[in-house]
Amino acid sequence: MKAPDTAVGPLPPIEAAVRIPVRVDTPRHAAMAPTLDYLGERPLAAGTMVRVPLGRREVWGVVWPEPGAAPGGEQEAAGSAAGGPSPRGDTATGPTLRPVREALDLPPLGDAWRSLVDFAARYYQRSAGEVAAAAVPPELRALTGVALQRRLTRLHKREAQPGAAEASDPPVSTEAPPALQAEQADAVAALLRALAEPEGQPAAWLLHGVTGSGKTEVYLRAAEAALQAGRQVLLLVPEINLTPQFEARLRERFAQRRLVSMHSGLTPAQRLQSWLQAHLGLADLVLGTRLAVWASLPRLGLVVVDEEHDPSYKQQEGARYSARDLAVARGRLEGVPVVLGSATPSLETWLNAEVGRYRRLPLSRRIGDGAMPRVRLVDMGQLDAGRRSPSGPQGGLSPALLAAMQQRIDAGEQSLVLLNRRGYAPVLHCGDCGWKSGCPHCSAWRVFHKGDRTLRCHHCGLTEPVPRACPDCGNPDISPVGRGTERLEEQLAALLRGRDGGAVRLARIDADSARGSGQLAAQLAQVHSGDVEVLVGTQMVTKGHDFRRITLVAAVNPDGALFSSDFRAGERLFALLMQAGGRAGRDAAQAGRSELWIQTFHPTHPIFKALVRHDFEAFAAQQLDERRSAGLPPYSHLALLRSEARSLDAARDFLAEASRLLRDDPAFAAALQAVTLYPPVPMPMVKVAGIERAQLLVESSSRGALQRLLGGWLPLLDALRAQHRGVLRWAVDVDPLAL
Ligand code: ADP
Ligand code: ZN
Ligand code: ZN
């Protein structure tokens, strides 16, 4: 942490000083408690943001009385002796408390916001100070009072300007919103009742409808009502860059309101500005990715989580929270309705709706009676071996599919071909000696990228030029095995022709092609303009883009997910394919002609059977059956304890010791009755960037029992780690997405 950029002069001598409890960013289980006592001249309200000394640094903190303690700072400060702040309770033995350096001139963070932080810290087993610090923009934590004043002056100046709305804002829409369909009207009515009468409402509302069924219109109506009641609205989306149309619709409908966005793509200054606008109540709508669940919103009235099943709502480092689950918790703490929208709800959400904890609001049809795309399963087992192979004459694409795509091209329509693997080929191989392009640092192959002729590890980033010959035996004839999006693009270019008889106009969108921020937008614009005849992409392109002219979507190799060790792979595949299919034929004019093609070796798999009928309920019922009999979520609750070390043995030993610690301690005997500890195992991808990783699964049918056990156990592990020198890190993941 850098030193403060303005020196703070000595405070006037303190006469009747008061004790101020402050949460600062200290790691959980550190020797220091998360709430430290400081001295102030006068009591500060709970939630006040302050700058306080911590060791030799000055850090951001929040005034945070312990629940049940006397209101902030009203006790006489006690203590005497030198040194830094100390754990609470040490005051009797007496280090002198150090004074608060300054209180930031901002309204305090609200009680509900602090409750959310407390809840998340408890649930995800982190320190509340750490969670609080991670929940605000880094720029805010670095601000001194002087710098803050400069920002606020600028902010208020902008607000005061007539027509403060940015120049890029769309004009006020002259079109009246459409008259609601019956199911939409029912959904909106239920939400309006919940807005008016928070008592006795379900924990969340599940708005269940396919792409194009009018979910967004329902969000807009509910948001409108909340805004009219003087409240703020929080809308969460999985990824903003991929869904510019959602933001555009919000801006158009609410042109008179202030909308701010919050996501990791903003500059630090922009993020701070959005945060301040929300916190000061100047912004009416906040649209953001998972981090926006932490926005401070003093007048919050409604929370919407779009595509609630999307895995990107789960944070994968630090406090590994689910923004979807925290949104529901936040709704409960603030007494405001939460709407979860999806065509393919997560099984957790679906079960919650089945048992009545959530209420389902179904939208069973597409607007304008647009038909769902016809699903065509291509049995790849029927193709002869040469054609099946990605290096065969048809490049592993069925002739029927190629013909259907050619038809679309000739009719001036677009096709989207999905392949969830970027690069040219996932591995290079030497036929003579068997060498493969492994990564020396990871248990993974390095992927061949033909564009820049590199071998790249997608896990640690190691990138090297492709060797001219086999590094082991010198054979110059090393060949790509398998297929990624680059190769698919090349194959399609060879197998299709453009409408004008020339080369087919192809575009490829994946994490490689969309590296720069402007690049993705430019590519998407190209697709929208109709310039592109065939679009090749990874799941990125299925995320919410409304491609009006796409009438054919094809998944050319989705089988990997069917037999994955990841128990959620099937759920994700179904969602992906439903969502991909939703990209096709949204225009009524094209209804009936739009198709979703799936190349598979397992055409009778229950996932595909349900997909053919667009039958999410059948799919969910089948999956829930499987999960119930396997004792998996949502019927059980999981946590993973992970450790990372230079050697796998070290990583595993630590977990084994941790497990023994628990079993040998009679204090845990009762808790262990309701919880199962599994033996430590290597992680599925055991080595990344030279570090070996192991994990231990903890499972219980009772969330409470699991929480209690973790709460008692994890605090012991830092001391244990000190005895395991080889262990670099350990962490716990509550409700992990994958095992
Ligand atoms: P979803 O969010 O479920 O994909 P949308 O709300 O985007 O669905 O609706 C799909 C399309 O139908 C949009 O173009 C939207 O403007 C339009 N639409 C939504 N509701 C109605 C309605 N009641 N009447 C006419 N058009 C509607
Ligand atoms: Zn070789
Ligand atoms: Zn690597």
Quick structural overview:
The chain is 31% helix and 20% strand.
Could you give the topology of this structure?
Layout: E1 18-24, E2 35-40, E3 49-54, E4 57-63, E5 102-103, H1 111-123, H2 128-134, H3 138-142, H4 145-160, H5 182-196, E6 204-209, H6 215-228, E7 232-236, H7 244-253, E8 259-262, H8 268-279, E9 285-288, E10 300-305, H9 323-334, E11 338-342, H10 347-354, E12 358-363, E13 374-379, H11 385-388, H12 399-410, E14 414-418, E15 427-430, E16 447-449, E17 454-456, E18 463-465, E19 478-481, H13 485-495, E20 506-509, H14 517-528, E21 534-537, E22 550-555, H15 569-582, E23 595-600, H16 606-612, H17 616-630, E24 637-645, H18 648-664, H19 669-673, E25 675-677, E26 681-688, E27 691-700, H20 703-713, H21 717-722, E28 727-734
Parallel strand pairs: 6-11, 6-12, 7-9, 7-10, 8-9, 10-11, 13-23, 14-21, 14-22, 20-21, 22-23
Antiparallel strand pairs: 1-2, 1-4, 3-4, 3-5, 15-19, 16-17, 17-18, 24-27, 24-28, 25-27, 26-27
Helix pairs in contact: 1-2, 1-9, 5-6, 16-17
The structure holds adenosine-5'-diphosphate (ADP) and zinc ion (ZN) (2 copies).
One zinc ion (ZN) is lined by residues 439, 441-442, 444, 457, 459-460, 462.
